[in-house]
Amino acid sequence: MPKQIAVIGLGLIGGSMAMALQGFEDFEIVGVDNDPATLEFARTHSAAHRLTSDAGAAIAMADVVYLCLHPGAIVDFLSTHRQAFKPGALVTDVCGIKTAIVDAAAVLPPEVDFIGGHPMAGKETSGIFHADKALFQGAHYILTPRPGHRSEHLDLLRRIAAHIGCRDVVETTTQKHDAIIAYTSQVMHIMAVAVCDDPDLFECRGFEGGSFRDCTRVAALDVPLWTELFSMNASALTKVIRNLEDNLRSYREVLERGDTAALTQKLAWSADRKRHMDLE
Amino acid sequence: MPKQIAVIGLGLIGGSMAMALQGFEDFEIVGVDNDPATLEFARTHSAAHRLTSDAGAAIAMADVVYLCLHPGAIVDFLSTHRQAFKPGALVTDVCGIKTAIVDAAAVLPPEVDFIGGHPMAGKETSGIFHADKALFQGAHYILTPRPGHRSEHLDLLRRIAAHIGCRDVVETTTQKHDAIIAYTSQVMHIMAVAVCDDPDLFECRGFEGGSFRDCTRVAALDVPLWTELFSMNASALTKVIRNLEDNLRSYREVLERGDTAALTQKLAWSADRKRHMDLE
């Protein structure tokens, strides 16, 4: 009997993951979802080798479980099903925040290993209907192993990352992940929606260039998902937003003073930081 | 003798424009620059039909003059050469701000027509070494004709816009251009540099996704150019920065209060604006 990977939740990320996992070593991929339309789409698009709505049965048989639900639902799932995982199994997730998830995994019995994961890929759309087996190509795959994790499971996740096309695997702590992700991802989304709150938004057709299209692309976000991601990382995120407000105000004040020399100096400093970042 | 278009200043935009203009009707393209290395590069890459460092001689013969200098240099050029243009000529520019430029064109004699222009294309690099004849493909070409302009010149610019591959031509006033461009372009650049001012910039390697790369792409900007563009449009730009600060603070305060319902409502409103913008 082949080893099994159960993917719980076939949304954009779970659906893409189930598709991308196919062909990984000799694993059978089992897709799990409650929604009949999602299961039907998954069936007609061969998103997994097998499909079911019975999560309990799937995880009882699975050697690896990928939790691809919204963060609050992952916390609930871990609590509800904590005794139902196969002993010796690896449980992992794909969620954009890590501290709340890994803390919730403390309910698991000691014979079940949990390693938090975050493949940094996404789209400004939701649901399996937009899933793409190439979604993870070129993405960083961040892992936050707990003390005492089993090293063969970390090796397994590294082989999966390579199979699905990730650029590299980055190991870090849950705290560092959440602090940095507030900066590199969450505040990008807050900026995009804040830009769309400008009263001139609908005046700008015909005047938008690449930078505007790039910045606002992620504003059409999945509201329930991002409400959870932002709320469950509010402490790190509000610190980054405050930094950004301060940095914007500093530019505004130099412009209001008409201090061209100071503006030149500030721009040179910032542009140099960006070039320095690109070089290394 | 063929009609001539003189391109004054063969930087990224001027060099790309000279390349893109070749083949436009029966015009001969004359490239003008002071810098020997730029002229040599232009010669070996056939950036124009003819090349010279003598701007005065070039504009005396040119039926169309494209001013592709930095904004302050355009103002100086118009003042210095105001009597040297060929009577009946069209003078235009490619500058990212329009009020200061069109105001400066008031020094021209009445037999020289000036129509301000802004093809909305660019790159985060400078100089003819990065020029690309396809740079304007798909871009909006904004024109700000003055009262009393000659309609055949507007027609000519429309045909040029089509020839160089622009998506459309948008006619507006200099005031509206500068107000909207502060929002759709200038503040995107201010955001990019402000993001790079965050103390965590160099911590973020390995944690950056598409939205971070997109947002910060334009931060490595041409400092002298953008110092002028920002300074010469400071009134409109500071208003937009203040709006953005307010909108960011509003998101931060909801997060600090832990008011999930208000966060959901705000995100739904903003995301809906973005989707509405895409639909029309």
TrEMBL record, chains A, B:
Pathway connected to this protein: Amino-acid biosynthesis
Q: Which GO terms describe its biological process?
A: tyrosine biosynthetic process
List the SUPFAM superfamilies hit by this protein, alphabetically.
6-phosphogluconate dehydrogenase C-terminal domain-like, NAD(P)-binding Rossmann-fold domains
The record's annotation in InterPro entries points to:
6-PGluconate_DH-like_C_sf, NAD(P)-bd_dom_sf, PDH_C, PDH_N, Preph/Arog_dehydrog, Prephen_DH
One example of the protein's molecular function in GO is: NAD+ binding
Report the residue ranges that make up the Prephenate/arogenate dehydrogenase domain in this protein.
Answer: 3-280
Q: Which domain of life is it from?
A: Bacteria
The UniProt keywords, alphabetically, are: Coiled coil, Oxidoreductase
Q: Does the keyword Ribosomal protein apply?
A: no
- Where are the coiled-coil regions? 234-261
Q: Does the keyword Coiled coil apply?
A: yes
The record's comment on protein family reads: Belongs to the prephenate/arogenate dehydrogenase family.
The identity of this protein, by name, is: Prephenate dehydrogenase
